[in-house]
Known about the structure:
The protein is an all-alpha fold. 69% of the residues lie in helices and 2% in strands.
Amino acid sequence: MNATTRQDVPTLLGEIGRLRTELDRVASDRYRWMRRYYEEAGTYWDAELPPGGECCAECGQPVESEPCPEHNPRAVVEQLRARVVELEQARAEGDYVALPWAFLLDDEDLHEFLGDLVAVAFNRWRWDPEVPDTETLRRVEKVCTTWRLIGEAQHAHNTAPGPDMVVPAAYYHMQQAAQAAQAAEEARQQAAALQAQQAEAQ
């Protein structure tokens, strides 16, 4: 792992947090659109609105027929997709690391982790050569599991994924945001249809 990869971990983890925030906002937008339009389906539009138009549910600015570009759910999804592509490219160009979470350990804990690995591996040959290889492997995995929890807890209260999980998590949140954005767009179209029916009834 090169020197910059460890330094990039906080930035990548920050991106995961940003994606989660965007997902929450898009889901909130969907609820807001549905509630607003269904509540107003039987009322007159405010005279201050543009003819046949509406206001952005996020910022309240008048727009002709769509959410403003900054808060359009489809625009948000496109931004998420672009960022995920960047994350995937950064991962592809980096070195593969089998234990990326170990780089989250501070110097003292990293030293102790390596010491534990040496102990469980070499003690087998020194004191108990009859132990099967699979048992030695199980002990090594147990040490890794323990220290992974410690490393991630040090970094982000035991919730931070290692660098090997950043891109999959980003994909997950992008897909969730895309689904929420599609639902928001469907709700907006349904609301527009209700508005058209109301206009015809008048």
